[in-house]
Amino acid sequence: MKKVISTINELDFTIADLKPMPAPKKVLLVKPTHFAVEYVINPHMQGHVGQIDKMAAMDEWEHLKNGYEELGFDTHVLEGVRGLPDMVFCANQSLPYIDENGNKKVLMSVMHADQRKGEVPHIQQMYEDSSYQVFHLDEDKFEDFEGMGDALWHYKTGLIWGGYGFRSSQEVYDLIADMYDVPVIRLELLNEKFYHLDTCLCILDQKTALIYPKAFTKNGLDLIHALFDNVIEASKYEAEELFACNATSPDGKNVFIQQGCTDVNQKLRDHDFNVHEFSTAEYLKSGGSVFCMKMMLW
Ligand code: ARG
Q1: What is the mean pLDDT of residues 272-287?
Q2: Domain chopping of the chain, boundaries
Q3: What mean pLDDT is predicted for residues 204-223?
Q4: Strand order in the sheet with 104-108
Q5: Is 198 near ligand 1, meaning CB less than 6 Å away?
Q6: Closest to 95 (Cα-Cα) out of 171, 136, 144, 151
Q7: What's the pTM?
Q8: What share of the chain in percent tops pLDDT 70?
């Protein structure tokens, strides 16, 4: 089996050949006490410096936290840290893994922007306290890697979808495939508004994905269509303005998504998903929404 796959010709397995991983039951969240837009490192942040309504942001975050708890997930809350306004996007600082013997491992990120590098040690501390074995990239060799912003687990098949182009370097996926001994489907990202893979690909269940097609190359789209039976497409407006593809399905049945994705929500219901709409309006100003505001843990 080829470990890192970038074109459909390299695909030498089907979904049926793969083994699922244990479903994560814990949700890490970082309290938005110090959340703000203080700098511009993605196009969505443009014009929003100093524009966060802190009370609204806290309220939106609390609703999301309750949403996970209502579904029976255990939430684990970390305090925010002054001076690290993006730490609330806790999908980005790491890529956790559990092997078949139940050993928990985590690869820490090398954040692309200097402004975010200070978040990583705080998240690492949480993993150390939760008995994960912590791994680091050689920063001289791998410039960038932004965790589950770009490397998305498909838990039901135990494979990783790895985006590159803006925040993560493509070489990192060879190392991840080796280290975790899992296949990685590597996808190039084309549009800087969709700078993380989690802004244009949402893995909903074993067979279903939600995508914004224009963010991908032809090779990427071929791979997505080869490995998912159902590919739901978001419109430009819902993908770009409402971050529809930054939705998340914590259990493969329920989908948490930014409020107002009318077209995508109808398609999700047609595929039998339960849609839960949340407002993440304050976080959209920073270029993030539901998916990147949490990390699923074992
Ligand atoms: N302001 C943050 C950044 O640009 C937002 C990160 C959102 N995360 C995500 N995975 N989409 O880094």
Answers
A1: 98
A2: 4-297
A3: 97
A4: 94-98, 104-108, 133-135
A5: yes
A6: 151
A7: 0.97
A8: 99
- Tell me how far apart the alpha carbons of residues 254 and 14 are, in angstroms, rounded to a whole number: 25
* H-assigned helices in 130-215: 172-180
Residue 250 scores a pLDDT above 70: yes
Please name the residue whose Cα sits nearest to atom 7 of ligand 1: 288
**Domain 4-297: which topology?**
L-arginine/glycine Amidinotransferase; Chain A (3.75.10)
**199 touches ligand 1 (CB under 6 Å):** yes
- If you average pLDDT over every residue of the chain, what do you get? 96
CA of 287 to the centre of ligand 1 (A): 5
Amino acid found at 134: V
Give the largest Cα separation in the chain, rounded.
51
Nearest in space to 157 (alpha carbons), one of 181, 188, 187, 182: 182
Question: Which atom from ligand 1 is nearest to the alpha carbon of 246?
Answer: 11
**In the predicted model, is pLDDT for residue 241 greater than 60?**
yes
In the three-class reduction of DSSP (H, G, I as helix; E, B as strand; rest coil), residue 145 is classed as strand
| Pocket-testing residue among 29, 90, 116, 292, ligand 1, by greatest number of atoms within 8 A of Cβ | 292
Q: Please name the residue whose Cα sits nearest to atom 11 of ligand 1.
A: 288
